[in-house]
Design brief:
Layout: E1 2-4, H1 9-18, E2 24-28, H2 30-35, E3 44-47, H3 48-53, H4 60-66, E4 77-81, H5 91-103, E5 109-111, E6 126-127, E7 133-135, H6 138-143, H7 146-160, E8 164-166, H8 174-177, H9 191-200, H10 212-221, E9 224-227, E10 237-241, E11 247-255, E12 258-261, E13 272-275, H11 276-283, E14 287-293, H12 295-303
Antiparallel strand pairs: 1-8, 2-4, 3-4, 5-7, 6-7, 9-14, 10-11, 10-14, 11-12, 12-13
Length: about 300
């Protein structure tokens, strides 16, 4: 049965508070340094390589908010500034800087149509063709009304993923039932941590940013083995691998071809119940590999005491 899911009021309040970082990042070309040279004394200017290796700017919230993965690779520097810095620029300089962010496809750029009161949006924060998008920064974000920020994020979530989901089966484990068909309040959780949470029922794991070898290790410790099958049963893990053997996605079977699933690492990717057909549509371009706890592996691990924490 199909249902519609929405972020709760508490989740929206958390998004409003945390999604727009308190540090402003501006991605630029070397020629832009001359353009803004009179304003650079109170900021950090990081060369691209140094920025990419800097632990302070690689945390999951900044990665997700600024959508590092979508930024064009030919930027050369990053301006790191406090929220008030941008207010010191002339309106013309602001428009030039924001136009560059749009050109480089940085995150935190929202459709103007998602702002219920467009009069709240300063005109020099507009960019794109016919000024149809808004480049959001920390200072201007705080100046918007709570209702405007709530509506912007609620609509933006729909751009990431459909709000349609499957009803959870009655047999779902209570630990999973607590989260199924809900949105996360904070960044971090991805498809791999979702799977390990479903396997271990350790709630804290759900909020971790898990990588593929950690998943493989966790499945091995839980007695999972790769199998060849055309039918799924509750507890199976389905993974999708690219040509290099890298796990691009994973999901946990709830039975009846339904899966506990998260399609990405952002707050806009909910923990949903999806049908196998939907998984195949979204990820079928990759090689499917299935894991299951077989009777032999369960007995072997149980005898060795590996299931004590589960």
């Amino acid at each position: 049965m199909k249902i519609t899911i929405q972020p709760t009021e508490d989740v929206l309040q958390s998004w409003i508070k945390n999604y727009v970082p308190t540090v402003d990042l501006f991605f630029i070309y070397q020629d832009d340094l001359t353009l803004f040279q009179d304003y650079l004394r109170s900021v950090l200017v990081l060369p691209k390589k140094e920025f990419q290796q800097h632990s302070s700017y690689q945390n999951i919230q900044l990665v997700n908010s600024y959508e590092y993965w979508s930024i064009k690779d030919d930027y050369e520097y990053v301006i790191v500034a406090q929220p008030e810095w941008v207010t010191k620029l002339t309106n013309q300089k602001k428009k030039q800087l924001f136009a560059r962010q749009y050109e480089l496809q940085r995150g935190l750029i929202f459709p103007l149509a998602s702002f219920p009161n467009k009069e709240e949006v300063p005109i020099h924060y507009l960019a794109g063709i016919e000024s149809k998008v808004v480049v959001v920064q920390a200072y201007m974000w705080q100046e918007l009304s709570t209702e405007t920020r709530k509506e912007v994020l609620r609509l933006y979530a729909k751009e990431w993923e459909s709000d349609s989901s499957q009803l959870a089966p009655d047999t779902i484990h209570p630990s999973l039932g607590k989260y199924v068909n809900t949105f996360p309040a904070d960044s971090g959780s991805n498809c791999l941590s979702t799977v390990l949470f479903a396997v271990t029922k350790q709630e804290w794991i759900l909020t971790e940013w898990v990588h593929q070898e950690t998943l493989r290790c966790g499945l091995q410790m839980a007695g999972y083995e790769q199998i060849h099958t055309e039918t799924f049963q509750e507890g199976d893990i389905i993974t999708f691998l690219d040509d290099h053997g890298t796990i691009q996605h994973a999901s946990y079977c709830l039975g009846n071809q339904l899966f506990f699933n998260k399609n990405g690492q952002t707050i806009f990717n909910p923990w949903k119940v999806v049908h196998l057909d939907e998984l195949s549509k979204d990820w079928g371009r990759y090689k499917m590999v299935i894991y299951r706890v077989t009777e032999e592996s369960f007995n072997a691990k149980n005898e060795a005491g590996h299931y004590e924490s589960y």
